[in-house]
Structure formats: C-alpha cells, structure tokens
What we know:
Layout: E1 2-3, H1 10-18, E2 27-32, H2 38-43, E3 50-55, H3 60-70, E4 75-77, E5 84-85, H4 89-99, E6 103-113, E7 119-123, H5 130-134, E8 149-151, H6 152-157, H7 169-177, E9 182-194, H8 209-221, H9 226-239, H10 242-259, H11 264-277, H12 282-290, H13 295-308
Helix pairs in contact: 8-9, 10-11, 11-12
Amino acid sequence: MPAYNAERYIADAIRSVLEQTFTDFELLIVNDGSTDDTAKVIASFKDPRVMLLSQQNKGVSAALNLGLSHARAPYVARFDADDICYPDRLKIQYDFITSYPEYSVIGSAADYVDADGHYIFTHYPIAHLNEEIQQLKYSVCPFIHSSVLYKKELIISNGGYNEHAYTYEDHFLWVNILGNQKACNLSKALIKVRLNPESITVDERWHSRKFRSIKYTSLRNKSITEEQGTELYQISGKQYPARKKEGAYYALCSKKFLVNNYQPEKARYNVVRAMNLQPFRLDNYIIYTMSYLPERLINWIYKMSARRA
C-alpha cells in the first residue's frame, strides 16, 4: 500500500485489510514522503502484521518497488491507501491462485465510491478470461490496479514498476509481462475504489494531447525513456493544480452517474460543481445537457462514441 498524504482515508483502508477472513499476511505500507499525519495514523495500529516503510517523496512506482523489495510472501496483493477491501478479498484470490498455479495475475471487479464513501457504480472488467485479456489492444488496461494479486517473483524478475511511466505504471507493466503469462479477472467485486480530488488519477480525456501521445506510444512500443518520463511528470505538474483535479473529480462522478448508474439528478449536481471550477470545458456542458436525456439514448450515444474511439 503506497501512501502519500492519505491521513483522511488510510485508517479505513488499513482496517479493511486487518479484518480479512484470510489472516496469514503482512501489510507493507510505504509512506511516500507524506507531509500530513499519515505516518501517525499508521503508527496508531499496533497489529504486528503492519509494517511501515518510509521514503522521500518519489512517487507511486518507487513506493511500490520499495514494498516489493521488502515483501516476504510469494504473492502480493496491491491496494491503495484510500480504498477498501471487502473481508473475503484475500481469501478468494489466494484460494484461486493456489488452486490454479498456472495463473500469475488475478484481478477483480470493483465498486466505485465517491470521496465520502457513497456508492457510484460497479466496474466490471472489460475482459475476464485469459483468452479475452490476451486479445485486448495495448491501449486497454486489463486490470483495476488495486484489485490485483500476483506472483511477486514475476514482477521483480521483470524489473518491477517502471518509474518513468508516470500515472500508468501498472498498465505499462501489464503490456510488458502478460504476453506469456496467464491472467484473469474475477467477476465479483472484491474492493471499493474511492474516487477523490486528491488522487492523481483523472479521467483520460482530461490529459493533454501530448501526455496521451507519449503514453500510448510507450505502451505500443513497450518502452519509455527517462526523458519521456520527465516530460510526463512536467506536463502533469502544470496540468493538475488542485482546482483542476477537483473539477476533474466532479466531472468523472457526473459521467458515471449517467453512463454506469443512471441517476441524472446526481449527475447534474456533480457536473455543476465541475462547471463552477472549470467553466471553459465544453464537455461539462455536454454532460449537463445529456443529463436530461433518457437512459436508453445516453447508452446508445456512449456506445457509438466508444466505437469511433
């Protein structure tokens, strides 16, 4: 579990792991140079299975690699400091990977919630069977990162997470290792993924054209340079001030309340907040207008746009 300034959410995240029905685990938390009380919250848990590692702020990839270097178990379950594990998450994935050892990566569906923990929608992976995952285009990420359990040595032997693939280190990892590995997604939601304004993950359409160009070129080529990584970081630093990230958060919530869980009033509530923060983004006004359309028509528009993409 990498953690950066996660004091608001991390206690719930830790409790959800400690309350697992599968109990033979260690919880490695990497404090990535937090400047708030994240470390203090972690230290308040006296369970011996909790291990705190600390580093200067180097980003998610570096934190994950540090955690991997200290992990003692043969299997690693990924998790984020603002998410929630359902009680049987570890047991289900551990039982699967030990029963079917030919598999190397096991993901799952996930319930998405807002910053306050309110349910938004359930995300079902685009591919479940290994054969379906292998057929995905390089541009499609096959897993929700915080849902996966994988064989530790596979990741380490492939160099771990690439620290230049800023914000998509997981996607970059999958395109480089899955060619000769079996993987699958379980259809049951095993985690709650929290959308929140502090997260560096935003709707893909809010990335700049240059960012997307570097990202998808590197995924297609399965390689990325230090120079490209630096450019991605610099683009994101300029692109995602707090106000813009908050606007992206509300815009994403509004879209999900239209396309994934049709609740037009909640969609309008969120998109209005996005419009107040980012009044010059045309897509916010499109979402607001679409919120008055019937669900059937919205689904048709979404499918048509997805085919063109």
